[in-house]
Amino acid sequence: MSNVAKFNKFEFIDYLIDSGWVSLESHVMHDGEITPYYIDFRGFSDNKLIDNVVENVFQLVYTEIQKIGDKIRLEKFSGSESNVKKLEEQRNRLYDIEAYIGVPEGMTSVGVSLSRKYGKKVVIARSKEKEIADSFNKKWFIGLEEGDKVIVLEDVIQTGDMTHELIKRLIESKANVLAFGALVDRRENPHLNIIREYPQIRGYSASDALAKIFQIPFFKFTDIHFLLDRYDKRKRMSKEKMMECINFYAKHGADLYNYSIEGRQMSKLEDILRFAGGGVATINQYDEDWREREKELKQLTLFK
Fold first, then answer.
1. What are the structural domains of the chain?
2. Is the C-alpha dihedral spanning 109, 113, 116, 119 positive or negative?
3. Burial class (CB in 10 A: 0-12, 13-18, 19+), 6
4. 185 and 159 in contact (C-beta within 8 Å)?
5. 112: Cβ contacts below 8 Å, ≥ 6 apart
6. What's the average pLDDT block by block, 10 residues per block, for the chain (304 residues)?
């Protein structure tokens, strides 16, 4: 495995942009909201895209294993045995992957292709419950066995509802969910149903909320902030489109974010509000425990 190439985020993002998978055309979401940016992976029947994603998922996981190995060597040198033990446990979790499961139906083909290519079990999550089955496991999965160590893959995490339901079903089936990941994290608020069930996660992004709820690591290829910034650098975004994006994210987003507008880097919410002339929708207010949440989530996130 020493000849595995390291994951290159820039190359992957550029491939998505150049291939037309990232669109700045307004799109009506399933909840009726109109988003000014849209990442469309419904074309996962495209074998070239599947192969590219499969290779990059493996590179991302293997790159993380290498990074943890580097940290272990540094901790051993400094004599911190407790940190060494924690890092070795994290690395062993990644070595123990038995199956990659795609959130149905968008990532099903990627999960199957990834498992087949790297000699893992093929496990398929059903999008609808099978009516006649002799166990909960068989109602919702094909090929899953109790104790299987799996990683869940999503194409785009927006509100997290589908990923949340899949992980819950895996846990109820007594599978061991090692981590979950997404090609793109939109960094938006969790679905209202998730907030109602777990009110303590209010203020977290959907992905961070799921990491906290299930106490498992989350990894991503990119997030909406990096993706839009990269898109702007390569194709240039109009001021009007940038303001559409800011207004939309101000209403639905979970982060204090950075945007570069007309060459000015804006890292403060007040700057963005002033630039928008007071036209930005209601903002998720910065609260006092933000940095505490961030610190807590870093302990869960293996994949930076």
1. 9-300 (3.40.50.2020)
2. negative
3. exposed
4. no
5. 102, 122, 124
6. 67 84 85 84 64 78 76 80 80 82 88 88 93 90 94 92 96 92 91 90 89 87 85 84 82 66 44 40 38 52 40
